[in-house]
Amino acid sequence: MDRLRHVAPRLLAALLLPVLLAACAGGPHGVVRGDDPAFRPVAPAAPVPPEQNNGAIFQVSQNGGLFSDDKAHRVGDILTVRLAERTQARKSANTSSSKESSLEIPNPTIFGGGVTINGRPVLNNAIDGTRSFGGRGDSAQSNQLDGNITVTVAEVLANGNLVIQGEKWIRINQGEEYIRLHGVVRPVDIRADNTVMSTQIANAQVAYGGSGTLADSNSPGWLTRFFNSPIWPF
Asked: How buried is residue 81: exposed, middle or buried, by Cβ count under 10 Å (0-12/13-18/19+)?
């Protein structure tokens, strides 16, 4: 008995340790500037030296025409994205069901007469059951993101579309705010001022968040995440 008394706390601690670690791992992960290659700025390719510099205005290494505009079209070029993201979703569900059942067993007859006690039937039975269920759920979500972010061209696809990516970090007091963007843009959608709307980006991946004191204060602690985790049995 004494040995079991000493082993029980160790066994309980061994069982709770993975649960606590899972609760800690389920919290928000810190984001570091430049830690994701999908959002890093891309440098342009090094120019190829001309085979012969004869003093002409056009050079092969410039990879451009005399009458070309300044809109992004090469790897490493800069493009400004105007963020105008608005999403709104709402969902509701309502379910109800009911069921009634009844069963009646009459008094049996034995030797031509019913089973009674003092003239009162004692084997009459009746069963009634009623079951009902009602459930209702509502969910609503609305998001809005406005602003600008300047990104770079990471790749020029075979059809001329541009793969763009980049991130923007702003330090305010004791925290940092960031915006990350990745997607595909058609050159025809780029405006004359070298801007494009975020609604015209294909396969867009837009991330907005923050780190620091304010972000930490808005996040639940590890003990709260532990009690809210799916593995908590109660």
From this structure: buried
